[in-house]
């Protein structure tokens, strides 16, 4: 009786992917390539002399949509003096880097990985 109980839990853990297995999957590689492209684009544009607070941030914001659109909408809707003082440190090149490539790009990494993994695990139908 005890062996059946242990076997039941062993079977449940056998089907779960480990972190090391998940990192080697195709969705993880695609998501990592996307995030690396966003980071490299940011640094290339900054090195080329683009204004990363103004016009230069537009391409990075487009690359990190939909989360960047949410971040832009949230910051433009906050109009109180207290919220402006809270957001003031993010109005810089470093702030743009943290918000768009790091946070929004990271959220897109998670989204790409999750959707890609779900598609990969989907059972194939034969026609």
Name a few traits of the molecule.
75% helix; mainly alpha; 0% strand
What would you say this structure looks like, in words?
The protein has 127 residues and is mainly alpha-helical. The chain has one domain. It is 75% helix and 0% strand. The protein has helices spanning 2-14, 19-23, 26-47, 56-63, 67-77, 81-87, 93-121. The radius of gyration is 21 Å and the shape is elongated. The N and C termini lie far apart (44 Å). The mean pLDDT is 83.
What is the rounded Rg?
A: 21 Å
Note the run of SSEs as H and E.
HHHHHHH
Q: What fraction, in percent, of the residue positions are helical?
A: over 70%
Could you describe the largest sheet, including whether it forms a barrel?
none
Large-scale geometry: elongated
N-C termini distance: 44 Å
Average pLDDT across residues?
Answer: 83
Total domains:
1
- Residue runs with pLDDT of under 50 for 5 or more positions: none
Helix and strand composition category: mainly alpha
- Give the number of helices: 7
Beta-strand share of residues: under 5%
Q: Multimeric state of these chains?
A: single chain
The number of distinct β-strands equals 0
